[in-house]
Amino acid sequence: MAAQILLQNSIFTTFILPFLLIFFILFAVLQRTKILGSDQGQLNAFVSFIISLIFVAAFNYSTVINNLVLFLSIALVIIFVALMIWGFVSNEEKGFNFGEHKVIRIVFFIALFIAVVLAVLWAFGIQITGGSGSVTDFLFNQVWSQPFWTNLLFIILIAAALAIVLGIKSGKSS
Questions:
Q1: Burial of 78 (0-12, 13-18, 19+ CB in 10 A)
Q2: Are residue 16 and residue 52 in the same domain, yes or no?
Q3: What are phi and psi of 129, to 5 degrees?
Q4: Is residue 21 in a domain?
Q5: Which residues contact 19 (CB under 8 A, 6 or more apart)?
Q6: Which domain covers residue 80, as residue numbers?
Q7: Are the C-beta atoms of residues 54 and 22 closer than 8 Å to each other?
Q8: Over the range 84-100, which residues count as b (16 or more CB within 10 Å of their CB) and which as e?
Q9: Among the listed residues 16, 43, 20, the one whose alpha carbon sits nearest the alpha carbon of residue 30
Q10: 53-97: per-residue pLDDT in tens?
């Protein structure tokens, strides 16, 4: 059995971290909004302390917060990677400038989005193609998939037609 460090201890992850998170967020909100009055730091801290204790005592809520914090940290890493790739692609100092070419920027953004989605699926160990249980099987071989993709295609075509018409209309008036 592997040794458990302090940060992995269940008392730390189910009590201390959710308590501190709620306490500091609530304290900051009370300080910023001055609901209890200005220069009421001790009162804000006491109210935050009591509400955080009540929050942590209800186990279901702290589990929800733990799951949301895990999701937030994964989402922040994914966004960071996407922005890093976007920064490398659109580096204007190195001579790769999109300038007035908005279509190229949109194509690169769509390619970046697809690459990040595929990378996230790969990182989670989800099989992308082939075999049952794969993403393509889930997306295209279900009872709901044909009507969904047909309706999505029509929505995209209608949105594109509206964007073109509104873009032409706004271009003529200026």
A1: middle
A2: yes
A3: -130, 155
A4: yes
A5: 52, 53, 55, 56
A6: 68-129
A7: no
A8: ebbeeebeeeeeeeeee
A9: 43
A10: 988 887 667 677 777 777 788 888 888 887 887 776 666 565 555
CA distance 109 to 104: 8
Contact present, 35 and 68 (Cβ < 8 Å): no
My answer on whether 72 and 121 are in the same domain is yes
| Tokens at 70, concatenated | 């895990």
Q: Give the total number of structural domains in the chain.
A: 3
Tell me: do 84 and 110 sit in the same domain.
yes
Please indicate, yes or no, if residue 137 is contained in any of the structural domains.
no
What's the maximum distance between 2 C-alpha atoms anywhere in the chain?
72
Q: What predicted TM-score, i.e. pTM, was given to this entire model?
A: 0.44
Token digits of residue 59: 């186990």
What the block records as the tokens of 44 is 């804000």
- Amino acid identity of residue 74, one-letter, is I
Give tens-digit pLDDT for 100-141: 566 777 777 788 788 778 777 776 666 666 666 677 777 777
Answer whether residue 62 is part of any domain.
Answer: no
* Of 49, 59, 46, nearest in space to 15 by CA: 59
Tokens of 9: 């201890």
Q: Residues 139-164: pLDDT tens digits?
A: 777 788 888 888 889 998 998 888 88
In one-letter notation, the amino acid at residue 90 is S
Q: Is 63 within a domain?
A: no
Task: Provide the token pair at 80.
Answer: 């960071």
Residue that the structure tokens 């008036």 belong to = 173
